[in-house]
Design goal:
Number of strands: 10
Number of helices: 4
Distance between the termini: 89 Å
Structural class: alpha+beta
Largest sheet: 6 strands, antiparallel
Low-confidence stretches: 6-19
Strand content: 25-35%
Radius of gyration: 29 Å
Length: 198
């Protein structure tokens, strides 16, 4: 019964959010990956996403991942906003970082729209390759501690545990073994006790 109530409330919340967003615009929630989105760079296609579920006074990152072989350039900006310089381009990733105000809004827009502009990059010998759509994934993530996504905390915890284990093993096992091996028994030292002084 509890799960039915949660499901109904989530459905009502989702329909309310989608009613605030323009028609046919996908909704991005924090921590949810929208996979297999399509765009055609040869047509200079634009795609928009409605950002929802933003908390007040928080830092967020929208990350767009696409195949490294894609002949396109992606630009992320908010609709009706001043272009920001908080972009970062990697080999097959575009991202934009932003803060929300005390009302959970971006630039005082109640429903922020993220626009993705695509531009062709290079020329192909095949017309079919030029007209091919590019498939990409997009995610909205909350950033903690000045810019660390939640997914990175697993890696940080693993690295700290590995470092503690390495220090423990070096102190308890490796160091005593090395100290025992530094003094080797030589029969000549027993015959002449002053041999080590020479």
């Amino acid at each position: 019964m509890f799960f039915v109530i949660v499901f109904v409330v989530f459905g009502l919340f989702t329909s309310l959010i989608q009613s605030l967003c323009p028609n046919n615009v996908p909704v991005l929630f924090p921590g949810v990956v929208l996979e297999n989105q399509h765009v055609s760079p040869r047509l200079h296609e634009q795609k928009q996403f409605c950002l929802s579920g933003l908390k007040p006074n928080s830092q967020y990152e929208v990350r767009l991942n696409f195949p490294g072989t894609a002949p396109a350039n992606f630009v992320l900006n908010f609709v009706d906003s001043i272009p920001t310089n908080q972009h970062r381009s990697l080999k097959d990733t575009e991202k934009i970082i932003f803060w929300t105000n005390d009302k959970g809004q971006i630039d005082n827009h109640e429903v922020p729209l993220l626009q993705i502009d695509t531009m062709p990059l290079g020329v192909s010998h095949s017309h079919e390759i030029e007209q091919r759509e590019i498939v990409f994934n997009i995610v909205l993530e909350v950033l903690y501690l000045g810019g660390v996504p939640f997914d990175a905390f697993n890696l940080i915890i693993f690295a700290v545990v590995f470092l503690i284990l390495a220090v423990y093993l070096s102190v308890r096992i490796i160091t005593p073994t090395l100290l025992l091996n530094t003094y080797e028994y030589h029969p000549i030292n027993d015959l002449n006790p002053d041999a080590h002084l020479q």
